[in-house]
Amino acid sequence: MVMLQQAVDAFKWLTVYEWILLAIDLIVLIWYTVPIPKYYRWIDFLPGAGVVVAVLSMLDGDFTLLAIAFYTLTAVLFLCTPTKIWKPVYRIPVPKYRVLRAVLGLCGLAPLVLALMFAGENRYNPVSSFGQMSYSQAFIQLNDRLAREYPFGERKKIDWEELEQTYEPLFRQAEQDKNKALYYKTLRAYLFSFRDGHIKITNENLYDHPVFKAEAGGGVGISTLQLDSGAVLVNLLLPGSTAERSGIKLGAEILSWDGKEAKAAYRDTAWSENPMATDGDKWYNQGRFMVRAPVGKEVRIAYRNKGEAEIREVTLTAYDDQYETLLKTKVKLKREDAPLEGEILSNGYGYVKIRYLLPGAAMPDPGQVWVELLERFQKEGIKGLIIDVRDNPGGSDDLLAALAGHLTKEPALYEYVSYYSRITRKFEINRQETRKIQPAQPSYQGKLAILVNHRTASSGEGLPLLAKGWSNAHVVGFTGTNGSFGVVTSPIEIEMPEGYLLQFPDGRSLDANQQIQGDSDDRGEGGSMPDLNIPFNQQTFEAKYIRGEDVELNVAVQALEAMK
Q1: Mind telling me which residue stretches traverse the membrane in this protein (predicted)?
Q2: How many CA atoms lie within 13 A of 504 on its CB side?
Q3: Among residues 154, 265, 269, 447, which one has the fewest Cβ atoms lying within 10 Å of its Cβ?
């Protein structure tokens, strides 16, 4: 019954061509499976008509697995019946081998039913080609499509008309002046206004882009972070850099940067690799990009070293550092990195680092490794479990749900998923993708802490979101998670002028009340906020960036020690 319901629900994900193909294939299958004594000449032409429709669908660009299933069955039916087009059989004999014909008919229906069951995940989401339009025309078409199909317009309270009024004049100015740099920066500003980490220009290599290189290709050898008090401190100092040679030390407070008070320079920094969904993500990236400048530019800096009262001023020339400060402050996963690994710490706590939620080259079955770790932890009698999902970019929600099953006693809903339907013209729940957490063995029900940061994103945010309702768990971090929990199955893709290919999430993750969960809102709030939110003050800054301590891990251990 559930399978039938899923198949019926699937009709809202079909294209018009797929609807026609489904009808043709069903009629032909029924005609040749069920003994019908009356002859209908037009049925002989249906398989050929189906081939024509399939070709039109392919010309429209639909090569999804769902469409290929229809194309294949249509082609098979056509190849089995071409002679009837020019050699009609007007007398219908009593069919032989009725049982065999029925079995073959059911075999033909099977791929249709399977295709319909997975139609939501494999639905056709066409690429919009606006690349040959003017900048302003392409923008208007882009904005119109997103107003209909972007999953979080209401949650983020996006005023689409206001966006058009704000950005269309800038795009028009860029096309009138033939200013590619203004076009690029306006396009980025528009995308970043959504505050969604899943939005990206897929073919953009930011560090190689001439506009970015012209404005931020140089550095002086430092990166910064802002304390809760507003003070901007140096958290990275490159050995041998111009900053180090000038006397700036790790932990120094930057008082002014290039003629601006440091707080204002920090606040006004706009560059980043990706849109910053939450204030926590924005806070961290602004400190990385504030200290970038054009190569060769002289930057006047006022600073005060840690433990000194004297304010010093220095003029440094930005040099081509090959983006070293940016690379050193952004985690880059490698193919050989294991998805997860664990150990028992010297204090008796179990520790598991989950880097990403996909099979890896060195670990094809992370779920099995997770089970083995839990079995080892139970055998050794750990005092508590610490799961580290800091810097986890996500991966598979199914894998996350499977891992979480070993941490729960009762079945629970992980998520509903909804997509925009081109048939109903609204967002619909795809029942096939409803994910539930089923308790599994070995089961761990002891004290638990989950470490997060602003780069815990997408399905990486799933575990801390779930743990908010667990009495035995703490979520620990300086910031909440990334707030980009949307679904990217058949993403919205749009080709824009100058060859830019834009990608947007296509689905929403919904909670048990069918409300959007995890994604940031219009205030930059979202994801999973720690219940143990560590203050970022002088003390914790020095512990983390000067002494190199793992502050979040230490706070988690203290919290678990205090739990009964």
Answers
A1: 12-32, 65-86, 98-119
A2: 28
A3: 154
State how far the Cα of 479 lies from the Cα of 451, in Å rounded to an integer. 10
Tokens 């939005």 label which residue? Answer: 199
Contacts of 102 by beta carbon, 8 Å cutoff, 6+ apart: 33
Sequence length of the chain is 564
Rounded to whole angstroms, the maximal C-alpha distance in the chain is 106
The answer to whether 464 touches 528, Cβ cutoff 8 Å, is yes
Give the CB-side neighbour count of residue 361, counting CA atoms within 13 A: 5
3-state SS class at 506: coil
pLDDT tens digits for 156-202? 999 999 999 999 999 999 999 999 999 999 999 999 999 999 999 99
What residues form DSSP beta bridges with 257? 260, 301
Q: Which residues contact 15 (CB under 8 A, 6 or more apart)?
A: 57, 60, 62, 67, 124, 422
Please give the backbone phi and psi of residue 373, each rounded to the nearest 5 degrees, phi first.
-65, -45
65 contacts 116 by C-beta, under 8 angstroms = no
Give the Cα separation of 65 and 419 in Å (integer): 17
Q: pTM here?
A: 0.90
